[in-house]
Amino acid sequence: MYINLMYIPIILAFGLSLWAQFRVKGTFNKYSEVPNQYGLTGYDAARQMLDANGLYDVPIEPIQGSLTDHYDPIARVVRLSEPVYHERSVSAIAVACHEVGHAIQHKEAYPMLVARHRMFPVVNFASGIAPFMLILGFIFNFTGLIGLGILFFSCAVLFQLVTLPVEFDASNRARRIMLSNGLATNQDERGVGKVLNAAALTYVAAALVSLLELLRLILIFVNNRD
């Protein structure tokens, strides 16, 4: 009974995840049509923010796709999707400066970012093998294998939970520095906030879905043992 009931919050969380993805795309597209007050491209804003924080040696590269922007801590490079790299919109500077926020975290050894980097190799392995262990465990009713699969899956859930403060902190840094360094006006900042808040919601929804799925698996495991 409890296991069946667990499907309800998971379905709701999955719906939230789909809505969050729809919202971030809609908000990004909306503010892609709004020019920022200083006429900066995403590249301009990112370069100025990097230089203002002493990160002169961190390059900025354009990449294909939409919302594929990221900071690569291994190569120490900020990669911006082509629309963000070239456009002079509120969305462009919001996303670009958020990614620079991660570069600043890296420079300052922000504890949660350091923890996420150290977890990544383990999580990469665990998240790849967990589904196979769970499937085989359920097929052959082998509780030991199910338990091991749950343990590996919990590593991926922990990684997502650690990601939340990393993303929130990068957004907060971006908004604060953009205003203090004259990269955005107060009018721009309202749009920047909406873009970054919509993006943050996708991480929250993904973490919630994974957390509820972990709880469901634990309940199934306990039920099988009983």
TrEMBL record:
Source organism, top-level taxon: Bacteria
Keywords from the UniProt entry: Hydrolase, Membrane, Protease, Transmembrane, Transmembrane helix
Record-level Gene Ontology MF annotations: peptidase activity
One BP term from GO: proteolysis
Residues annotated as transmembrane: 6-22, 122-140, 146-168, 200-222
Keyword Transmembrane: yes
Protein name: Zn-dependent membrane protease YugP
Organism: Paenibacillus turicensis
